[in-house]
Amino acid sequence: MTQQTLPAALAAYAAPSGRPAPYELLADRDDGTVVRCGGSVAKAHAEDTDRDGLAVRMRIASARALSQVLLQPLRAEVGHVQGRPVSLWPYGAPVDPHRPEDAPWEPTARLLAALHQVPLRRLPGPVPPMRGPAKVARALRRLAAAPDTGTRVEAGAVRAAARTLPAWARGEAPAPAGGVLCHGDLHLGQLVRFPVPEGSWRLIDVDDLGVGAPAWDLARPAAWYAAGLVDARTWLRFLDAYRDAGGPGAGPPGCDPWPELDLAARALTVQTAALALAKAAREERRLEDVERLMVDACVRIATLPPHLEPASAS
């Protein structure tokens, strides 16, 4: 008997009957395969996923303290399909990529502020470290393994920018102790409305959830702003909403946020540029305009002195 494809097997896992069912393939990447089957979504996580860590993160996502912040799973337990760890979620409507003017910047900021203020003692533990620095390390490894297609100068600039980061921010040493509950991989693709169609926004994807520096969750919009991908008005809307909601990761309202954000923004820029170069090399193509902006930002970062932790860090 022919084995089902992974998406078909995920659909059977998500279906109430547990039998083959119609499905929609939402994503099929190295880091996860995601299918929708009716009102349920099944995600097969990467083969090298830390399964014990994922089990803890699923229990955290199910905690009542996070019910208004994270989309909560249909099952707190991690399942297995074709040897891959699998999680099961209700379907939520994603951000519409074709309507950037409607992007929920302020709701995203308020969700982050709420996430960063959840007392860790109210969560099942022990809460693992946030995996943001590990993603920087993985991106640099992919760049190192990519074929040389004439991008040696750009790759050198990305590696030089990485050297301005402390070892822990490159994923090469343990992060400083302490912090708050962080998402670990925040971008607008990590939000859905639930229940569909007019429910509240919720954060999704708990693969990188854990304790860390709250500025890391602000890193992508900060890096995009610094690289010219997000305009000043949008950036300030996001930043002001986060601060007004009590978010601790960017300093108090009215103060310069960059002493808090500089490290995380540099790290996210390095990660994004490294992945862009590696992908372009594999596909034997030139960098796209957005990718080029992130590599150019690394060229500028490489000229800066090594990052110094703000005086408030401990």
Automatic annotation (TrEMBL):
It holds the Pfam family APH. It comes from the Bacteria. Residues 70-258 form the Aminoglycoside phosphotransferase domain. This is Phosphotransferase. It comes from Streptomyces goshikiensis.
